[in-house]
Design a protein that fits this description.
Helices cover 45% and strands 10% of the residues. It has 289 residues and is of the alpha/beta class. α10 links the parallel β5 and β6.
């Protein structure tokens, strides 16, 4: 359950879109409403049995509790469009060098189940579709959400075409981690220096000796010191430095990057929105710079 007084976690996405629309980004960027991901696209990752239960409202009470949201047709539509947004961001990044989904990062969804506010794994679906369409041969997932992307790690275990990096809270959800290709465990209350040292090493080791055609960057806001569910002590300035480090690494290695927002549960919620907005601003600067 969410901490007392915490706003519904999806609310920040609408607030972020309005913040982008009302800023100069609203006139300099192309904002699109994504199409829903198709059944065929979702089935590149998710099992037919799980997809059927989600679409038809057949999830058990236990499965619904594990996801954390009550089932509704609106939840299905929103989950489809979140995955569709990451698919479109992937294609746009491959054409233009960089693109952003103002949602996404639902990395706790496994092929056969959802959990942790995640129904479909948008990044996993987009990666699989890009590989199947032969738009990319090698993909890296740079997951800087404080909560390990266990669904992504499990999905791509043993898949040499997709490399997963996770910089995660050691004592945070999920409490049973799924080994990825490169995982960094951070202690509670880790500060900017500790966090950014891990980011630097993780990104350098991910790119070392490997050629990627596409990167996914989960630019989550939940490492922030004011996050209810983060347990770290990273400042907004530290997260801005993180974003710059990751985007610069992708530029240096000539790898197009699709950004997704991931988690962010600050109180007040406007802190999470501000962190995400700064990420979008920086992506725009890199794209035009």
């Amino acid at each position: 359950s969410l901490p007392a007084g915490h706003r519904f976690p999806m609310e920040k996405y609408g607030l972020l879109r309005r913040r982008v629309e009302s800023s100069v980004l609203g006139t300099t960027c192309t904002l699109k409403i994504p199409r829903p991901a198709t059944d065929q696209e979702l089935l590149t990752v998710h099992t037919p049995e799980y997809l059927k239960k989600v679409l038809e409202g057949g999830l058990s009470a236990k499965e619904t509790r594990r996801i954390g949201f009550p089932w509704s047709p609106e939840l299905v539509e929103r989950s489809r469009r979140s995955a569709g947004g990451t698919l479109e961001a992937s294609r746009a990044a491959l054409e233009e060098g960089m693109a952003v989904n103002l949602s996404g990062g639902t990395h706790h969804a496994f092929p056969d189940r959802g959990e942790g506010y995640c129904v479909f794994n948008d990044v996993a679906v987009a990666a699989r579709v890009m590989l199947m369409e032969e738009r990319a041969q090698r993909i890296v997932i740079l997951d800087l959400d404080v909560h390990q992307g266990n669904g992504s790690a499990a999905t791509f275990r043993g898949d040499s075409n997709v490399f997963t990096l996770s910089i995660q809270g050691a004592n945070n959800f999920p409490f049973r981690k799924e080994p990825g290709d490169l995982d960094f465990e951070l202690p509670d209350r880790a500060d900017d220096e500790t966090y950014l040292t891990a980011v630097d090493e993780g990104v350098r080791r991910s790119f070392a000796g490997r050629d990627f055609d596409l990167a996914f960057f989960l630019a989550a806001a939940d490492p922030f010191q004011g996050d209810r569910l983060g347990r770290l002590n990273v400042t907004k300035e530290g997260l801005e430095t993180r974003d710059r480090m990751v985007l610069q690494a992708c530029r240096t290695h000539g790898v197009p990057v699709a950004l997704v927002m991931g988690g962010g549960y600050a109180s007040p919620i406007e802190d999470s929105v501000e962190i995400h907005f700064t990420t979008v601003q920086m992506a725009r600067e890199f794209l035009s710079g």
